[in-house]
Design brief:
The chain is an alpha/beta fold and 343 residues long. It folds into two domains: 6-236, P-loop containing nucleotide triphosphate hydrolases (Rossmann fold), CATH 3.40.50; 252-342, 2-Layer Sandwich (Hypothetical Protein Yjia, Chain: A,domain 2), CATH 3.30.1220. The chain is 29% helix and 25% strand. The protein has helices spanning 19-28, 47-53, 77-89, 108-114, 135-139, 147-155, 165-175, 190-203, 220-223, 265-276, 334-342; strands at 6-13, 35-40, 65-68, 97-101, 124-134, 179-183, 209-212, 252-259, 281-289, 295-302, 305-313, 322-329. The strands form two sheets. The protein has a seven-stranded parallel β-sheet, sandwiched between helices. A five-stranded antiparallel β-sheet has the order 8-12-9-10-11. α10 packs antiparallel against α11. It is globular and about 55 Å long. The structure holds guanosine-5'-triphosphate. Residues 13, 15-21, 41, 48, 104, 183-184, 186-187, 214-216, 283, 285, 300, 302, 307 line the site of guanosine-5'-triphosphate.
Length: 343
C-alpha cells in the first residue's frame, strides 16, 4: 500500500501581513487535527516561534513548533528546511498536517520545489500555498512600481526590471499562491477593499480565489485541505527569480538594537514609532521590560503602524531588558533608528 503523504500548507506573505496571526488562528481552530508548525523569520529574534510556542493552545506542545532561524527559508532549503521536515516526519507520532510559515521576504517557489527532493517527496505534499496580503499596505501603494520609471524602461530596451524590490517579492508570493488571504480588511474602506481586490487580481495570471479576513480569522477548511499538490505544478507559478539559483535577498537587511527597560509603554511606543519612520525601515519587532511590571512588553510595527501588548512574564533570572529587530531596505538608516531609540 502506498503510504499517504502528509499535507503541508505554506503560508507566505510580505513582512507583517499577518502570517503568524493566521497560523495562530489555525492552531486555535485545529478541530482535533494534530498540527505542527515550521516557522522561519528574517532577523534573529526568534519572535514568531516564541509567540506561537507560548500560545497556550490545548494539545499544542513546544515540540510542535519548530523554528528555522538563520536567514531565509528559500535560501536554506537543503541545510535547514529539509532536515527539519524529516525530523518532524520521523517522530513516533507524526503530525496530521504541517503549516510552514515563511519569512516575509521569502520566495515561496524554491520551497515548493524542495518538495520534489527524493528525501521527502514520497512522504509529504504541498496541500496549498496561501499568500497573506496586507490590504492597507497594498491600498497605500507599498508594492506598486513607480509608473514613470516603468514607462521609461519600456520605452528603452523594453525589458522591464522592477525598480521596487518590494513589488518583486510581493509578486513572487502571490504568483505562487493557490489562495490569497486579503487580510486586515478591518483597516480598509469599502472602496479601497474593492480597489485592492482588483489590483491583486490584475497581477494574477489564473483565477485564484481571494478571500477576505481580519486578524486571519477564516474558516480553516478554506485554507487547509486544498489538495493542490503544488510541487507538481511549478511551471504554473511564475517567479522573478527563476534563473537565480541562489538569490540572496540583497535588496534587504536586518539589524538588532538593544532596548533598555522603560518607565511606561508609551515611552517605548514613542521611540519605536520614531525609529519606524527612519528611511528604508519596513518592519520592527521586539520586546522589553517595563518598570514594576512582571510581564514582557512586546512591540511591533508594520510600516508606521505600531502596536504593543504584554505577552508573558519574564522568567526568573531573565535579563530585564529587550531587543528590537529592524528589517528594511538595504542601507536603511541605522543611525536614525539608533538615535530614535536612545532619545
Ligand atoms: N488591524 C489589523 N491588524 C492585524 C491584522 N492581522 C495582523 N495584524 C497585526 O499586524 C501585525 C503583524 O502581524 P503578524 O501576524 O506578526 O505578521 P507576519 O506576517 O507574521 O509578520 P512577519 O513574520 O514579520 O513577516 C501585528 O501587530 C498583528 O497584530 C488584521 O487583520 N488587522
Amino acid at each position: 500500500m502506498t503510504p499517504t503523504k502528509i499535507p503541508c500548507t505554506i503560508v507566505t506573505g510580505f513582512l507583517g501581513a499577518g502570517k503568524t496571526t493566521l497560523v495562530r488562528h489555525l492552531l486555535e481552530n485545529a478541530g482535533g487535527r494534530r498540527l505542527a508548525v515550521l516557522v522561519n523569520e528574517f532577523g534573529d529574534l526568534g519572535f514568531d516561534g516564541s509567540f506561537l510556542a507560548g500560545c497556550g493552545i490545548a494539545g499544542c506542545t513546544a515540540e510542535d513548533i519548530v523554528e528555522l532561524p538563520n536567514g531565509c527559508i528559500c535560501c536554506t532549503v537543503a541545510d535547514d528546511f529539509v532536515p527539519a521536515l524529516e525530523k518532524l516526519l520521523g517522530r513516533a507520532d507524526p503530525p496530521d498536517h504541517i503549516l510552514i510559515e515563511t519569512s516575509g521576504l521569502a520566495l515561496p517557489k524554491p520551497l515548493v520545489g524542495a518538495f520534489n527532493w527524493p528525501a521527502i517527496r514520497s512522504r509529504v505534499t504541498v496541500d496549498g500555498v496561501v499568500a497573506v496580503v496586507d490590504g492597507p499596505a497594498v491600498a497605500e501603494g507599498t508594492f506598486a512600481d513607480d509608473p514613470e520609471a516603468l514607462a521609461a524602461q519600456r520605452a528603452g530596451d523594453g525589458a522591464v526590471d522592477h525598480d521596487n524590490p518590494l513589488e518583486e517579492v510581493f509578486e513572487d508570493q502571490i504568483l505562487c499562491a493557490d489562495l490569497i488571504l486579503l487580510n486586515k480588511c478591518d483597516g480598509l474602506s469599502e472602496a479601497d477593499r474593492l480597489r485592492v481586490r482588483a489590483e491583486i487580481a490584475a497581477h494574477l495570471p489564473k483565477a485564484i480565489k481571494i478571500v477576505e479576513a481580519a486578524h486571519g480569522r477564516i474558516e480553516p477548511a478554506l485554507v487547509i485541505g486544498l489538495g493542490a499538490a503544488a510541487e507538481s505544478d511549478l511551471s504554473a507559478r511564475p517567479s522573478h527569480h527563476e534563473s537565480e539559483a541562489d538569490h540572496d535577498h540583497d535588496d534587504f537587511d536586518s539589524a538588532a538594537f538593544a532596548l533598555p527597560k522603560v518607565a511606561a509603554p508609551e515611552e517605548l511606543t514613542a521611540r519605536v514609532a520614531r525609529a519606524a519612520e527612519a528611511e528604508g525601515v519596513l518592519r520592527v519587532k521586539g520586546f522589553t521590560a517595563v518598570a514594576d511590571k512582571p510581564m514582557r512588553l512586546v512591540i511591533q510595527g508594520v510600516g508606521r503602524r505600531i502596536s504593543h501588548h504584554y505577552d508573558r512574564p519574564f522568567a526568573a533570572g531573565e535579563p530585564r531588558e529587550g531587543r528590537l529587530v529592524v528589517i528594511g531596505l538595504k542601507g536603511f538608516d541605522r543611525a536614525a533608528v539608533a538615535a530614535a531609540l536612545a532619545d
